[in-house]
Predict the structure of Polysaccharide pyruvyl transferase.
Amino acid sequence: MRVCLIFHSTRSDNLGVGALTVSEIALLRDLATKAGREIAITVLDWKDRRAPYVAGDDLRLIEVDGAFLKSPKGLWAEVKAADLVIDIGGGDSFADIYGTSRLVKMFWMKFAAHLAGTPLVVAPQTVGPFTKGWSKRLARMSLNRSALVAVRDERSRAALDDLGYRGAPVLASDLALRLPFDPPAPRDGGPVRVGLNVSGLLMAGGYHGSNDFGMALDYPALIARAIDWFKGQGAEVHLVPHVIVPEGPMVIEDDLRACETLAAEHDVICAPAFASPSEAKSYIAGLDFFTGARMHACIAAFSAGVAVVPLAYSRKFAGLFGALGYDHTVDATTADADTVMAALERGFANRETLAAEAQSALARGIDRLAAYDAALLNLMKAL
């Protein structure tokens, strides 16, 4: 069975996209075994320079660039040769908020699969928001031509209704809930360990430096205030990057530089440049409390049983965590700095309760993912 993955990546500098890809590949291998089929997986990969963090004889990686997308021997040939194309949309890129260029590329790849007659699976992801007429029309056309559509929260299911999707979507959760990690070694005493994921993109004000995501507060000032407050509580503060871009045009997204600068200014610990999503999750699992603006950094904490207060810049946060009954997300597009700090202080004080809630909510998330597993297995058996 030949499966082609689009808008996944085995070596993305964004470890959240990587977490989804590692989890998807593990699931496909498991389902192929259950279906009694051998599998060959092709990932149309991003051109980030890090080493792939997943491998195997059943895996083939192809770097995607403009020439590949346009060539008859490139994208078209790959989706035509596949038995199944799966698109996870980078988790949340099937929306207007990241700009026209990324969305156009996504539509191009989706419609290549449609035109080739290869079944397209929309893997669990956030859908929307779509605010433009042309993007709404193309999204509706693609969704209604897809063999299987799965979303990771109720808000995305409502977005499907608004777009005019005629099918029955699978209501699942985020695949990265299953990302493997190494549990931390037992600790005997010592200070409380607090992790802050600092978004380099938000520190820069977005891609254009003009508060692109509509934050209702001064994000750099909030981070400095939070670091100082946690230090004042006697905590051991760790600044944790989750998008690590050493160089190139997307360096504005880099968290590591922001973490290193803040760590030097505030005399706190800067986590290392992780080589893989599982390495990042294993580090986060050793903390006692966590907050961050990268959703998959928060998912890593949540799914490792760490108390977490997600700091949202889009509706994807509340949609995902709220769907699982974990209602501790604070929306930085509407809340001011005092409100955010109050939420962090409250979460820190009640971290044992939050950790227990995270474990219960995780079980609900795993149960919801079973619906995607079953639907995908049935589709694979029918091919």
In short: The chain has a mean pLDDT of 94. The chain has 14 helices and 13 strands.
